[in-house]
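Hi support team,

I've been running sequence recovery on a batch of backbones for a student project. Most finish fine, but this one hangs at about 90% for roughly twenty minutes before it completes. I'm not sure whether the input is malformed or the queue is just slow. I've pasted the structure tokens below so you can try to reproduce it. Let me know if you need the job ID as well.

Thanks,
M.K.
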């Protein structure tokens, strides 16, 4: 088995021969980077770097019909299959043994977490080690891969945002790439404070989100009083609207057993939400929350949003205390 670092992979990914070197490409890391993988395969397809056309196998199809996909081809046309996060199939020993030793007609790629047990890749596989957090040099390599024409001024701003930090995760860097691609270079300086604040306070926002969805009332309001004034009211409406929207669709996809989509859409929600806390919520309740936020947004635009967010929080947590959501 060939093991390569994330740094080496970012250099090799643009080479067509790299993707022809094996039938098995395994990404291994502590977290499933849904945004990174989405951008990676979009880039590889658009630039025709893959040996065959890419196809994704949904979790349900992979669970029940993998032989019909991975053992057959139509008129000699082969495919590059993305199997997603194999941790969703941790108990399917037969499937995992088949994948780890795959030597079929096609090429397969997938992700496994670092703590994945009883999974031994064949000697012909390529394993890419994904770092949990990256530094500015790796971030620049990601930009060079996904957005090679990005102006130097935008790349320089990336350096200011990192400012010596090495605790920014890969998906956050991909989000930064998306931001930079959308921002007009003439408006870049005016946008710096806003973008830097979002990525500079991500851990606090994550803590706030975690306290909200785990219904930890005391923790939530302790964090809220510290950071409420750091952002304008409209930011909070957008932030919570996105959180509720993601939560709604995560639960919807889970109810449909579409675990790949659920994992992708849940990015930005606490890990505990998709793991267990989603069971505490109903789609109708989340719809009601979203409608409340829409009304707050309307009130802000009309200039009459007196303590709207505080009432939103109190209503949410009181409902939790009295009857559950």
């Amino acid at each position: 088995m060939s093991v390569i670092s994330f740094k080496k992979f970012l250099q090799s990914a643009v080479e067509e021969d790299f993707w022809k070197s094996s039938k098995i490409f395994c990404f291994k890391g502590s977290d499933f980077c849904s945004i990174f993988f989405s951008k990676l395969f979009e880039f590889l397809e658009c630039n025709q770097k893959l040996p065959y056309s890419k196809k994704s196998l949904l979790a349900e199809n992979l669970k029940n019909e993998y032989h019909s996909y991975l053992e057959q081809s139509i008129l000699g046309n082969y495919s590059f299959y993305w199997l997603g996060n194999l941790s969703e199939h941790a108990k399917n020993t037969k499937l995992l043994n088949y994948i780890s030793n795959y030597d079929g007609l096609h090429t397969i790629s997938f992700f496994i977490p670092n703590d994945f047990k009883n999974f031994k890749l064949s000697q012909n596989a390529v394993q890419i080690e994904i770092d949990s957090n990256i530094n500015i040099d790796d971030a620049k390599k990601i930009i060079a891969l996904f957005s090679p024409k990005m102006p130097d001024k935008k790349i320089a701003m990336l350096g200011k945002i990192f400012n010596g930090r090495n605790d920014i995760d890969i998906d956050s860097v991909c989000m930064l790439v998306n931001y930079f691609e959308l921002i007009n270079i003439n408006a870049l300086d005016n946008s710096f404070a806003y973008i830097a604040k979002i990525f500079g306070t991500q851990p606090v926002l994550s803590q706030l989100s975690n306290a909200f969805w785990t219904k930890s009332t005391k923790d939530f309001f302790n964090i809220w009083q510290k950071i409420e004034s750091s952002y304008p009211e409209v930011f909070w409406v957008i932030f919570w609207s996105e959180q509720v929207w993601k939560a709604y669709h995560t639960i919807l996809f889970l109810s449909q057993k579409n675990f790949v989509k659920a994992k992708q859409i849940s990015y930005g929600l606490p890990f505990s939400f998709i793991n267990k806390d989603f069971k505490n919520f109903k789609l109708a309740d989340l719809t009601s929350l979203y409608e409340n936020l829409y009304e707050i947004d309307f009130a802000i635009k009309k200039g009459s949003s007196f303590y709207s967010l505080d009432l939103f929080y109190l209503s949410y947590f009181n409902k939790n205390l009295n009857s559950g959501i």
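--
Follow-up from support: It reproduced on our side and the slowdown came from queue contention, not your input. Residues 233-255 form the longest helix (23 residues). No action needed from you.
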